[in-house]
């Protein structure tokens, strides 16, 4: 593999990126035993490192990093067996992809960057989770897809045509995407609303901005959820780290994609 290609190589899967930077972050967490220490070692802000860890944990069926509660100041962290496997196999994937790109370049006379561009898909959705299909109930127009989200259930309603084109059936692995501003938060565990998806979590962090507030929940199993709410709503709800909150997501707001 040429050095230029190695430096540019990035694999993306529906908005969740796994490239050299993320692998370096995993390795730094393994060496230092701390997300904050890993961030300092790599010249990252703690928030950038923590966001990277959360994104990777959401992308994989099993978390790559387990972190002890520490708020925005940090906390202890260690690699799981899955995280160690990612580091160990990334080099092999990189080498195999380099061979493939070399063959394609010779056959199609395309530069590596042109080939990689077709393998990349980006999304603005803040929440991207790896899920497994439990069931599909479809009529001629719509399809209700039940998903296993690390022990919790998530329901998505899409068109029947989309379900057929994605080949959805029990056992199929999919990515579920939800924009953070589509998430509603409440302290009630059984609110009287018609929204199908109710995810229970514990507040991990709250970030207040001039225009709004981001609240991140720990859903368990290494999964997290980000909700973007107004400052007025945040002041009324007053979510604080450690408190239990219910997240509500309409089934029509859950977008599905294949890994």
TrEMBL record:
One of its GO terms (biological process) is molybdate ion transport. Keywords: Molybdenum, Repeat, Transport. SUPFAM superfamilies: MOP-like, Winged helix' DNA-binding domain. Signal peptide: none annotated. GO terms for molecular function: DNA-binding transcription factor activity; molybdenum ion binding. Residues 122-187, 192-258 form the Mop domain. NCBIfam families: ModE_repress, Mop. Belongs to the ModE family. This is Molybdate transport system regulatory protein.
């Amino acid at each position: 593999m040429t050095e230029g290609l190695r430096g540019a190589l990035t694999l993306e899967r529906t908005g969740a990126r796994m490239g050299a930077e993320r692998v370096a972050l995993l390795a730094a967490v393994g060496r230092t035993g701390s997300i904050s220490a890993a961030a300092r070692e790599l010249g990252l802000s703690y928030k950038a490192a923590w966001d990277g860890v959360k994104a990777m944990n959401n992308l994989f069926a099993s978390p790559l990093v387990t972190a002890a509660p520490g708020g925005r100041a940090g906390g202890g962290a260690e690699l799981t067996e899955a995280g160690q496997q990612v580091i160990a196999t990334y080099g092999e994937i990189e080498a195999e992809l380099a061979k493939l790109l070399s063959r394609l370049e010779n056959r199609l006379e395309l530069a590596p960057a042109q080939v990689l561009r077709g393998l990349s898909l980006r999304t603005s959705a803040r929440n991207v989770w790896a899920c497994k299909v439990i069931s599909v109930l479809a009529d001629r127009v719509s399809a209700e897809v039940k998903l296993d989200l690390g022990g919790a259930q998530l329901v998505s309603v899409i068109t029947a045509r989309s379900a057929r084109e994605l080949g959805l059936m029990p056992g199929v692995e999919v990515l579920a995407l939800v924009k953070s501003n589509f998430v509603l938060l409440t302290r009630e565990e059984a609110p009287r609303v018609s929204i199908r998806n109710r995810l229970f979590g514990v507040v991990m962090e709250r970030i207040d901005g001039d225009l709004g507030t981001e609240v991140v929940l720990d859903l368990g199993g290494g999964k997290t959820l980000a909700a973007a709410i107004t400052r007025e709503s945040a002041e009324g709800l007053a979510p604080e780290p450690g408190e239990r909150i219910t997240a509500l997501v309409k089934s029509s707001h859950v977008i599905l994609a294949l890994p």
